[in-house]
Amino acid sequence: MELRSWLLWVVAAAGAVVLLAADAQGQKIFTNTWAVHIPGGPA
Predict the structure, then answer these.
(1) What is the pLDDT of residues 4-31, one digit of tens each?
(2) Quick one: residue 40, left, alpha or beta (phi over 0 = left, psi -120 to 50 = alpha)?
(3) CA torsion angle for 13, 17, 23, 25 (degrees, to 10)?
(4) Interatomic CA distance for residues 22 and 2, integer angstroms
(5) Which of 3, 14, 22, 43 has its CA at 20 to 30 Å from residue 33's CA atom?
(6) What local confidence, expressed as pLDDT, does residue 40 receive?
(7) What are the distances in angstroms from CA 43 to CA 18, 23, 32, 35, 40?
(8) Which three-class secondary structure state does DSSP give residue 43?
(9) How far apart (Å, rounded) are the C-alpha atoms in residues 17 and 12?
């Protein structure tokens, strides 16, 4: 029974690491949401 609880903890910790790594990768995506569109500028 002790092995099962340890395995559950390891799987949960690994899942958290994967989610944090995916979130860190998402931070590299740059979106230009703050820019102002100027009519008549280059398309």
Answers:
(1) 898 999 999 988 888 777 766 666 555 5
(2) left
(3) -170
(4) 31
(5) 22
(6) 73
(7) 40, 33, 15, 14, 8
(8) coil
(9) 9
Structure tokens at 15: 């899942």
In degrees, rounded to 5, the angle at the alpha carbon of residue 29 between the alpha carbons of residues 12 and 10 is 10
The token pair at 22 is 């995916």
The Cα–Cα gap between 20 and 38 comes to 37
Our measurement of the distance from residue 38's CA atom to the centroid of its chain's CA atoms, rounded to an integer in Å, reads 32
Q: From CA 19, how far away is CA 42, in angstroms rounded? A: 40
What are the tokens at 13? 């910790």
Report how far residue 27's alpha carbon sits from residue 8's, in angstroms, rounded to the nearest whole number: 29
